[in-house]
């Protein structure tokens, strides 16, 4: 039961060179005529047996050009005992996913896939590219503050697991506590977060089930991924240290030369405060203080998949 004999059909031998997707591509085709000794043999049985015995399997190289690899093997029955196996070859580039499947049938041993992208954020424009404060002609900051679109990097990852890894649970809502590299870029602590963790079950051709886990490394090269707001208000601390009180800010507090009629009036717009909660006189972009709200956990990222890798 199985293959009795076979011969190559040389009249079906083909080769072609063309341009595709920006690369020079060589394609080729071969046909093998198979004679079986049992009419109950299926096309799948004959195709698998011929592939195992003669090495005609997806990923194998053409006998005249090892870079031109088999992409498709098609076995079809022609009569009770005869089958045709049509083989197509190509040098066209393959995706990382296709390539790793050819190299190793076990998806649990596949390396992480990393793809780079960008996202757009809105940031306050308080100074220009040369560090000059973004002020109006009177020397004041615009109200409302001016915002601009700014692009940062994001890295999309995929890896297979037998079960969800511990870091899936421990690193949600976290930031990197260590300096790390992703895609060839270096990020200081608090500049990387994990987002959009997702998983779905799948099954390999070996019959084993596994989980396909995807996630994103969300980065900010310039600012820490920590919410912050301008330290300003309508109230401030006054008095000597050790005997301070918090009260409303009046016009005299920000302008000692204010007219008597308005000195005791409460201010109508917030003013900048220093780190101690006191009024900053004649504030500038350099003297502005911000309050950070650290709500995310700091976790080690250096051992996570894709960290330290180049895209």
Chart the SSEs and their pairings.
Elements: E1 3-8, E2 14-20, E3 23-36, H1 43-54, E4 61-62, E5 65-77, E6 82-90, H2 96-103, E7 113-124, E8 147-161, H3 166-170, E9 174-176, E10 180-182, E11 185-187, E12 192-203, E13 209-219, E14 228-230, E15 232-233, E16 235-238, E17 245-248, H4 251-254, E18 271-272, E19 290-292, E20 297-299
Parallel strand pairs: 9-20
Antiparallel strand pairs: 1-3, 2-3, 3-6, 4-5, 5-6, 7-8, 8-13, 10-11, 12-13, 14-19, 15-18, 16-17
Descriptors:
311 residues; mainly beta; 3 domains; six-stranded antiparallel sheet; four-stranded antiparallel sheet; 4 helices; elongated
What does this 3D model show about the protein?
With 311 residues, the protein is mainly beta. The chain folds into three domains: 3-93, no CATH class; 107-226 and 295-299, no CATH class; 228-292, no CATH class. The chain is built from four helices and 20 strands. It has helices at residues 43-54, 96-103, 166-170, 251-254, and strands spanning 3-8, 14-20, 23-36, 61-62, 65-77, 82-90, 113-124, 147-161, 174-176, 180-182, 185-187, 192-203, 209-219, 228-230, 232-233, 235-238, 245-248, 271-272, 290-292, 297-299. Strands 1, 2, 3, 4, 5 and 6 form a six-stranded antiparallel β-sheet that branches. Strands 7-8-13-12 form a four-stranded antiparallel β-sheet, with no helix packed on it. A hairpin with a 6-residue loop joins strand 16 and strand 17 (245-248). The radius of gyration is 34 Å and the shape is elongated. The two termini are 50 Å apart. The relative contact order is 0.11.
